[in-house]
C-alpha cells in the first residue's frame, strides 16, 4: 500500500515537473499587432490648384464688406475668369483689415493702395465687358477703359514718388549716421574694446 502511494506521489510530481518545464520552454506566439494608422491632419485650406478658392461663407462675407461698385465689377470678372476673381477677392479681404495704432503715413499708403486696387478691378471688369459687348458698344467701353488706365497710371506713379521720397529720407539719415560715426571712430572702437575686455565695469553710472 505504501509502495503504491509512493508511486502515485512520484508520478504526480513527475507530471507536475514536466508540465512546468513545458510551460517554460514553450515558445509563445503572439498575434502580430496591427500598426497604428498615421495621424491625419484634416486642414481644409479650400485650395484648388487651378486657382485660389474660398468657401461660400467666406465669399459672402468678403463681398458683404465691400463697396457696391466693386461687388458688381467682381461679378463681371467672375463670369470671365474665376481664378482672377478669387485672387482679387482674397486681396480685397486682406486690404480691408485695419490695424490699430497706424501712423498718418501708413494710413496714406493704405488709402493709396486701395485706390490702385479699385482702378485695377475696374479695368479688368471693363475688359471683360468689352469682350462680350456688341460692336456698337465697344468704342464707349474702350474710351472708358482708357480713362481708367490713365487714372491707374497716375495713382501708381504717385505711389512710386512716395516710395522714392521715403527712400531719399532713409538715405539722408544713413549718410548723416555715416558721417557722425566716421568722426567718432576712436571713441566707438575704444568703447567696443572695453566691452570685449570687460574693462567698463567701473564706468557705469550706478
SSE blueprint:
Elements: H1 2-25, E1 47-48, E2 51-52, H2 56-64, H3 68-80, H4 82-95, H5 104-132, H6 135-183, H7 185-196
Antiparallel strand pairs: 1-2
Helix pairs in contact: 3-4, 3-5, 5-6
Describe this structure in words.
Strand 1 and strand 2 form a beta hairpin. This protein is elongated. Helix 3 packs antiparallel against helix 4, helix 3 packs across helix 5 and helix 5 packs antiparallel against helix 6. The protein is mainly alpha-helical and 206 residues long. The longest helix is centred in the last third of the chain and has 49 residues. Helix content is 73%, strand content 2%. About 10% of the residues have low confidence. It is built from seven helices and two strands. A two-stranded antiparallel ribbon has the order 1-2.
> Helices and strands, in N-to-C order?
HEEHHHHHH
- Main beta sheet: 2 strands, antiparallel
Q: Could you tell me how far the N terminus lies from the C terminus, measured between alpha carbons in angstroms?
A: 107 Å
Query: If helices are DSSP runs of H or I spanning 4 or more residues, what is the number of helices?
Result: 7
Mean pLDDT: 79
**Apparent shape:** elongated
Structural class: mainly alpha
Strand order, largest beta sheet: 1-2
Helical content band: over 70%
- Low-pLDDT stretches are 25-29, 37-51
Strand content is under 5%
Number of strands: 2
Q: What is the radius of gyration computed over CA atoms, rounded to a whole number of angstroms?
A: 40 Å
Amino acid at each position: 500500500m505504501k509502495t503504491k502511494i509512493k508511486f502515485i506521489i512520484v508520478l504526480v510530481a513527475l507530471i507536475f515537473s514536466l508540465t512546468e518545464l513545458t510551460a517554460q520552454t514553450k515558445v509563445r506566439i503572439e498575434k502580430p499587432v496591427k500598426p497604428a494608422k498615421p495621424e491625419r491632419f484634416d486642414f481644409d485650406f479650400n485650395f484648388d490648384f487651378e486657382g485660389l478658392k474660398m468657401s461660400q461663407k467666406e465669399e459672402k462675407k468678403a463681398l458683404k464688406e465691400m463697396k457696391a461698385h466693386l461687388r458688381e465689377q467682381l461679378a463681371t470678372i467672375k463670369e470671365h475668369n474665376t481664378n482672377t476673381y478669387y485672387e482679387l477677392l482674397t486681396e480685397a479681404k486682406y486690404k480691408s483689415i485695419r490695424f490699430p495704432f497706424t501712423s498718418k503715413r501708413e494710413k496714406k499708403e493704405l488709402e493709396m493702395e486701395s485706390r490702385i486696387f479699385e482702378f485695377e478691378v475696374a479695368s479688368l471688369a471693363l475688359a471683360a465687358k468689352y469682350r462680350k459687348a456688341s460692336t456698337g458698344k465697344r468704342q464707349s467701353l474702350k474710351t472708358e477703359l482708357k480713362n481708367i488706365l490713365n487714372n491707374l497710371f497716375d495713382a501708381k506713379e504717385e505711389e512710386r514718388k512716395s516710395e522714392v521720397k521715403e527712400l531719399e529720407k532713409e538715405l539722408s539719415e544713413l549718410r548723416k549716421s555715416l558721417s557722425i560715426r566716421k568722426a567718432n571712430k576712436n571713441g566707438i572702437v575704444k568703447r567696443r574694446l572695453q566691452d570685449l575686455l570687460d574693462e567698463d565695469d567701473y564706468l557705469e553710472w550706478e
